[in-house]
């Protein structure tokens, strides 16, 4: 199982309904489904799971492996691949009077499934079912594992007047204990790579006014003290990041950027590495697709950067819904520059090589080799970004250069001197020499130069 940095992929929709109830009375969420936006340059998006029969009943989802998902639908938990079917046998069924509140990765390749009403946490082997349980907290929203224990975001007294959310410590042999009181509805949790705890805070107004939702960061040493028996307060919050419109889920990528979703918007936003303030949009899913769950799926061979071969770099899984017809789980993955279709038999004289999806306003270099193309390997790492080549760098010669336009396209012209019939392999290297340092190469392509 691929584990995420946050311990959460999609939070319980039932627990989010207090935040959404007023908004759901408006016609906006039930408009006709619109097509998804195109992903940013250097990235692609593929749907790996879809629920159309009961989209509002999807409570949580974890990417289990490349093909399977652990999915909570109302009070049942399934191990599924692709489209859910009514014939699927659940690995856990809480009964019709309860609901699944969250799913969280648990040590040993297991999954913790929290119940919304009965306040029980079940530890699951997704292939075999429940293996143990321990007391949890009612009205839970999110959870992250710290060893065998869980930190849980919950508001157990809701809907009583004045009920507030907090972060609770639960686990085997523990009596559930609130370690950090908060104000307002429950929001997601994140454990950063350095052990710091990040807590979303929505505030007392529902939905929060634009820009008022905050991230609170508690140092790892204070988290350890709370695990050992201390109670935290706002005095233990070392850093605060504001400027968010709302929260549903958080995850951290391998560069230390926090990505966040808002259940009332289609965008996933992100911070700078190590930061707590939103600085940009990771992806916009398009009108009618409201962003919910997040999961960072790491791979050790490359960083989470665009313009790389799709199967070598980490992925960001994003859940979305229109609250009426679909719940869709997508993976945002790197997509390398590509050569536009061109004839493989090239007559003598200048011939075009058109490039797409390259780093915008960068430079492009066409490399050619008579030695053929072998398996692609990383021949260098520039600024931490792998440079993949299928040509032997010692045998490759430059054939043409050009500038990449703002839309990631480039029209390059290379020469065929004629005179003899030659097979060559070409690959285009494109990089942003003046901006972010993004770089990528196309897949190799064989051309036959006519005499």
* CATH structural class of the largest domain: Mainly Beta
CATH homologous superfamily grouping of the largest domain: TolB, C-terminal domain
Terminal residue distance: 54 Å
Task: Classify the fold: give the CATH topology of the largest domain.
Answer: Neuraminidase
| Low-confidence regions | 1-33
Any guess at the CATH architecture of the largest domain?
6 Propeller
C-alpha Rg, in Å? Answer: 25 Å
Main pleated sheet: 6 strands, mixed
Structural class: mainly beta
Average of the residue pLDDT scores: 89
**How many domains comprise the coordinates?**
2
Q: How would the global form be characterised?
A: elongated
Portion in beta strands: over 45%
Number of strands: 35
Helix content: under 10%
Summed up, the helix count is 2
Describe the structure.
By secondary structure, the chain is mainly β. It folds into two domains: 13-334, TolB, C-terminal domain (Neuraminidase); 338-449, S-adenosyl-L-methionine-dependent methyltransferases, CATH 2.20.130. Helices cover 4% and strands 46% of the residues. It contains two helices and 35 strands. The protein has helices at 13-24, 220-227; strands at residues 43-51, 58-63, 69-73, 76-80, 92-93, 100-106, 110-115, 120-125, 129-135, 140-146, 149-154, 166-170, 177-181, 189-191, 197-201, 213-218, 239-244, 249-252, 258-261, 267-271, 278-284, 290-297, 315-321, 327-334, 338-339, 345-346, 349-356, 363-369, 373-382, 385-391, 397-403, 410-416, 422-431, 439-441, 445-449. Strands 26, 28, 31, 33, 34 and 35 form a six-stranded mixed sheet that branches. Strand 2 (58-63) and strand 3 form a beta hairpin. The protein is elongated and about 85 Å long. The relative contact order is 0.13. Mean pLDDT is 89; it is low at 1-33.
